[in-house]
Design brief:
Distance between the termini: 25 Å
Largest sheet: 10 strands, antiparallel, barrel
Strand content: over 45%
Strand order of the largest sheet: 1-8-9-10-11-13-14-17-18-19
Number of strands: 19
Number of domains: 1
Order of helices and strands: HHHHEEEEEEEEEEEEEEEEEEE
Helix content: 10-25%
Shape: elongated
Radius of gyration: 24 Å
Structural class: mainly beta
Length: 361
């Protein structure tokens, strides 16, 4: 289960680069934060956006592979994995079209396409950091793509473990839950919670004299991953706050992120002996946040201020609706008694595949 969480840590690439360089006088990212915190938020948001979309697509995958609900006290324990594919349109972005201020401009006006986290594994364009008078005071390089590849296609994997069980006639519920896990090597902590409910509405009309040969259900599913990691960016040894500015508390620095996904489905399926094909259509939303909180010391490069720092608070704040739109899934469930096999393919803002095994009755 560590894979989706380790992928969330990839989203910290921008942040960890900046925090490392913030401890070195004149570091490009440090000067960027000092000059315009809003610009680094826009750059980070566009860089990691495919990660949020892919994780949300994965969270909305694998909930149901049949419209038929579990009978009372029957259960199904499922282990599955999904892979969301990054489309070509989300592999790069134009740095001149994301609303950057005049504090950040491309060094080469002909080199303006930067890789996203799902883009090419080659460094992006070099960017100027400018002061209020338009003078170039530093540079930084946009980072390369970081996601694993399936052939030539960058993917975002997202494994899931879930328990599904019947509660009342033609209705079952599903639970996905992972208690808070402390990741090794200072990687922070992560937790996951999810729940879903499905009702086979067509079988409400079945009777002993009227057997309906297919199942038609409606389902609602919700899933959320929460990640938090403490940061430690103290002032350089011997550095002092800029004269006239008070010192600050740097002990509350942290990075936190959440990806929450909500999915509404209408599912139709037909059992053919041990094989059950299904098709579903619905609406999904994915909301994502990523923030760097706390006070950060940024070394000053102003004349006569060598060895001093200014304090920047809460430099990165991202809150976006990553996905909102229709989604369709098609796949099957193979019932081999106590053992089951599942597979599906989805089409939405991102395409994805899902497969897994289950145990239950």
């Amino acid at each position: 289960m560590n894979k989706p969480y380790s992928l969330l840590t990839v989203a910290i690439l921008f942040f960890t680069v900046f925090t490392a360089r913030a401890q070195s006088s004149g570091g490009g990212f440090a000067q960027l934060i000092k000059a315009s915190p809003g610009d680094i938020t826009k750059l980070v948001q566009n860089y990691v956006d495919p990660l949020f979309k892919g994780l949300g697509t994965g969270l909305n995958s694998g909930w149901n592979n049949t419209a038929k609900a579990k009978k009372l006290f029957h259960f199904d324990l499922r282990i599955s994995a999904s892979a969301a594919f990054i489309p070509a349109t989300d592999k790069s972005f134009d740095v001149t079209k994301i609303g950057l201020s005049s504090h950040v401009t491309p060094k080469d006006p002909s080199n303006i396409l930067a890789p996203t986290i799902g883009g090419a594994k080659a460094a992006g364009p070099t960017m100027y950091i400018n002061d209020d008078q338009g003078n170039h005071i530093n540079t930084f390089i946009m980072p390369q793509g970081q996601l694993p590849m399936l052939g030539q296609m960058p993917i975002i994997p997202a494994p899931n473990i879930q328990l599904q069980f019947g509660i009342i006639k033609n209705t079952d519920i599903t639970v996905r839950a992972t208690p808070t896990i402390d990741l090794s090597n200072g990687g922070g902590s992560v937790s996951m919670i999810g729940f879903g409910i499905k009702h086979d509405i067509i079988q409400d009309f079945a009777t002993e004299d009227k057997i309906i040969p297919f199942d038609l259900a409606i389902a609602v599913n919700y899933n959320k991953i929460t990640y938090s990691r403490p940061l430690n960016v103290p002032p350089n040894s011997g550095s002092q706050p800029v004269p006239g500015n008070p010192s600050a508390d740097f002990s509350t620095q942290k990075f936190d992120a959440t990806v929450s996904a909500l999915d509404f489905q209408t599912i139709i399926s037909k059992k053919l002996h041990s094989f059950t094909p299904f098709f579903s259509v619905g609406y999904q939303t994915v909301n994502s946040t990523a923030n760097i909180r706390g006070n950060f010391p940024i070394e000053s490069t102003a004349p006569g201020q060598s060895g001093y720092y200014v304090v920047v608070s809460n430099p990165v704040n991202i809150n976006e609706n990553s996905i909102s739109g229709l989604r369709a899934d098609a796949g099957f469930q193979l019932d081999l008694g106590f053992f089951k096999v599942y597979a599906s393919y989805s089409v939405g803002q991102y395409q994805s595949v899902n497969g897994g095994i289950g145990f239950g009755f």
